[in-house]
Structures are given as C-alpha cells and as structure tokens.
Write a structure and sequence with these properties.
The protein is an alpha/beta fold. It has three domains: about 1-50, no CATH class; about 50-260, P-loop containing nucleotide triphosphate hydrolases (Rossmann fold, 3-Layer(aba) Sandwich); about 275-459, Nucleotidyltransferase, domain 5. The chain is built from 13 helices and 19 strands. The chain has helices spanning about 50-60, 75-95, 105-120, 180-190, 210-220, 240-250, 250-260, 280-290, 335-340, 360-370, 385-400, 410-420, 440-455, and strands at about 25-30, 35, 45, 65-70, 95-100, 130, 140-145, 150-155, 170-175, 195-200, 225-230, 275-280, 295-300, 310-315, 320-330, 345, 350-355, 375, 405. The strands form three sheets. Strands 6-7-8-5-9-10-4-11 form an eight-stranded mixed β-sheet, sandwiched between helices. Strand 9 (about 170-175), helix 4 (about 180-190) and strand 10 (about 195-200) form a beta-alpha-beta unit. The longest helix is centred in the first third of the chain and has 20 residues, at about 75-95. The chain is elongated. The model is unreliable at about 1-20 (pLDDT under 50).
C-alpha cells in the first residue's frame, strides 16, 4: 500500500467542493482534481473541512471540544483528529497507544468506530479492527500496522472500566452525555503523557461537560479550547431542514440540537435546583454545625460499576433548612473502603443514614462498622405510592420553599446530576410518571435523606 502523508495542510484539501468531483474522504489527484486510485503517486484524501473543523485539527490545547449542531461534522473531524494524533505519536515515540470512547458501546459501534475506520482507509495507518463480542462486548481494538500499537475502543457505560494505563490521546465522541466519573477517568489516563483529549458532541444540558470543562474555558483557562458551530456550517447539511427544526422545536431545544449551545434541559425533574446552590468553606460549614441546633442526615445509593453515592446534610431545627455539604461518589470500590471513608460524626454530632434498601447485606456491613444506618423507605405510609414519586414531591417542596441548600463547591456530582436528571421525552419509552433511570445516583441518595427527614411531616 502506498503511504499517504496526512499533513492536513498538504493532503486534506480545502478547495470548494464544486471544484472536485469526488466525495468526502475519497482518493483524488490534487493536480487534476479528479478521483484516482492508490497507484497514483499524487493520491490524497479529499477532505474539505470547514473553518471550525480546521480550528479543532489545529488546536494544541490539552482539552479540546468540538460542540456542534447535529450533522455539523463533529464526528468526522474527531476521526481525522485521531488519525493525526496517531501520526504524531508514531513520529515521536515509534509507537501509539490511544483510546476512543463513546457514552455507550451502541453509540460507539453505530457511528464512532466506523467513521474512524473510514478515516484510516487508504492511509499508512489502515489496520485491523477486532470487535469483541459476548461478555466483553464493551471493549474493542484497532490494531495499527507495522506493530505501531493499538487504539482501544470502549463504551463508557461503566466509567470504572476506563481506569488503568496511560494513553497518548483520547477521543470522546458524544461526550455531552458523559458522566463526571468518565471525565475524571480520561483525564487521569492521559495525565502522565499530558496527552490531548478531544470531545466531539452535541450539547446535552448543563451536565459534566459543562461543569468539568466549559466553565474552565469561560474562566480563561488556557488548557481548554471550545469551538461551537451550527449544523449548517457543514455544507452538506440542508438549510431547509435547519429552518424546519427552528420552526418546530422550542427555542431552547433548537439552540442545543442545531446550534451547539449549552442550554438547561427541558423536562428536568428539578427545574430550579440550580437556585439551591451556595458556596461555603470548610470552616463555615463546621461553624454552622457546631453553633446551630440541628441534626446531621445522610443518604446513600449503592453501586459498583455505577458509582456509589453518598451525601450528608445539616438540618437546622429553627429554620427547617437542609444544607447538603458533603459528598462521596466513586465506582468499583469495596464497601469496606467506603465504610472507612464515611464519617460517623462531624463537629461532635452523629449522622443518621438512609440507604438503598435493595442491598440489606451492605447495610448490615455498615452497621457492623459503627454507622447509624437504616433502610430507605420504599412506599408511602403503607400504600402502593412509590417512594420515588413521593420523594420527588418532598424534595421539590424543599426547593420551591427555599428550604434546601447545596454547597456546590463540596458536591460537584450532585450538582452535575441535577442538570441531566429528567423525565422521558415523547419519543422515549415512558413507564408511569417516573424519571429516566440514569444519572440519578446522588439524586437518589438525597431523596432517601429528605424522605427520612420529611416522612412524618407529609402525613
């Protein structure tokens, strides 16, 4: 196979598409602007990137994000960015160890890896894709030729499965749906080499991407680079479809889906949760607990692949205000390690925990470890009313009456989940009136806590 230099200044031609009668990614002869085969010594891949895509390819920041409307060409630029990173790593080290991830293995298999494989085709990096099936379905690999290395391809369904090893780079496709734990994992896995991380996505509320990256970018942190563009920046995207979406969708949904803008999601379970956020220092928190009449409560949601989540709050007896100020959020960790990390008292006051009743075995272990813990209530006062529905009502009541405060600098996972915890949309499967069962680990543990506090008051 002839080698193709993937220097985008020379080979990824940016001529107007009407001048070249070939499709994106196909081989062509730039001297004639006509399609050709690999036997042509002038062969190059025709990739007419628009200015926003070029900005992503040229970015030299540690954390890079292509945030675009649907169909705007973000996945394509991610695939070619990955090819460039492979080339850089081989030129520097003679080897490449990279990673490609998506929120789920289905997303990865449907769009991300096929686009990457197409980008490698007819280049010196064209290798073999090994698709693992069965029990190990969530991890595949792309083996580079010439013993140059491996690009691991994984779903981020289980953020804990991303831990271990160091990579030259990571590409996270549709990263707007990523969890806080996923961002922590990929940052850690590129830390030793200070490798770049690229996220390509359409925004998805004010979740982990917004909180973990975009806020740093807005604050002027040079480690972060964002490029945001409309769907129609891709010349192939129909203008009439863009306008049809504008007329059909709410302004917020259109801005998010077709213009790549961060917007608060519609259908959030707690639409005004952001108004509960405050900032407090450790000294202020300890002073509040020690100087006010009140009690400490905790909520706990068990998990292994999904994170174990726990939050602690202080209930002020005089004002009936609950201030949540402590958080633990960690995957694939034994209960014994959690037990050691969970406080039993703070400022001389003991903590009463309410925990997920689905794991009585773990509750017993925590009790043996000296924690004051009980099962969270499952139904409302002997009826069939779900504790989920009733707990949401109780938590909503506290939010709307200004009786809930969340110390955001101490509880980042809780704040991130509040921005994506939502009810199903019309085109999604709906079971009763419960929220979607995801992005809800802190949401559940706080609901257990508030239910424990307000159970008797709701009689």
């Amino acid at each position: 196979m002839s080698q193709i230099n993937l220097d985008h200044e020379a080979e990824l031609d940016t001529l107007a598409s009407e001048r070249v009668q070939v499709n994106f990614g196909e081989l062509y002869d730039p001297t004639t602007n006509e399609a050709c085969g690999m036997d042509n010594p002038n062969a190059g891949k025709y990739c007419p990137f628009h200015e926003d895509q070029i900005a992503i390819l040229e970015a030299n920041h540690r954390f890079i994000c292509a945030c675009a409307g649907t169909g705007g060409g973000k996945t394509v630029v991610g695939a070619y960015w990955t090819v460039f990173q492979i080339q850089k790593a081989i030129q520097k080290h003679g080897k490449c160890h990279g990673m490609i991830i998506a929120p789920t293995y289905k997303v990865l298999s449907r769009a991300t890896t096929p686009t990457f494989i197409d980008a490698c085709q007819h280049t010196e990096f064209e290798g073999n894709f090994k698709n693992h099936t069965g029990y190990f379905e969530s991890k595949s690999k792309y083996i580079l030729p010439n013993n140059w290395g491996v690009i691991w391809c994984q779903g981020a369904d289980n953020p804990g499965g991303l831990e271990g090893g160091q990579f030259d780079f990571v590409w996270f496709d549709e990263g707007g749906q990523g969890k806080k734990a996923t961002y922590e994992a990929i940052t850690g896995r590129t830390g030793a080499k200070q490798g770049p991380v690229l996220v390509t996505t359409t925004p998805y509320g004010l979740g982990a991407l917004y909180n973990e990256w975009y806020k740093h970018y807005l604050a002027g942190n040079d480690d972060y680079f964002f490029r945001i563009w409309d769907s129609v920046k891709n010349p192939a995207y129909p203008q009439e479809e863009f306008e049809r979406a504008r007329s059909r969708l709410s302004p917020e949904k259109f801005q998010e889906r077709y213009r790549g803008q961060f917007m608060r999601l519609e259908g959030l379970v707690y639409q005004t949760f952001h108004k509960t956020r405050i900032s407090m220092s450790t000294e202020q928190i300890l002073d509040m607990i020690s100087s006010r009449e009140g009690k400490l409560y905790g909520g706990m949601d068990f998990g292994w692949n999904d994170p174990f989540a726990a939050n602690i709050g202080f209930l002020d007896f005089e004002t009936d205000v609950l201030t949540i100020f402590w958080e633990r959020y960690k995957s694939q960790t034994p209960i014994e390690e959690h037990a050691d990390a969970l406080p039993k008292t703070i400022a001389g006051k003991s903590i009463t925990w309410a925990a997920d009743s689905a794991r009585p075995d773990l509750i017993r272990k925590l009790k043996k470890g000296g924690h004051n813990i009980k099962k969270a209530k499952k139904h409302y006062k002997g009826t069939s009313v779900s504790a989920i529905i009733n707990g949401i009502l109780m938590m909503g009541s506290r939010i709307h009456s200004n009786r809930l405060r969340v110390v955001e600098n101490m509880c980042p996972a809780l704040c991130a989940e509040s921005e994506v915890y939502r009810y199903p949309e019309k085109d999604e499967e709906v079971i009763g009136d419960k929220p979607i069962d995801m992005d809800n680990h802190c949401m559940d543990d706080v609901r257990y806590m508030i239910t424990e506090i307000d159970w008797k008051k709701s009689a």
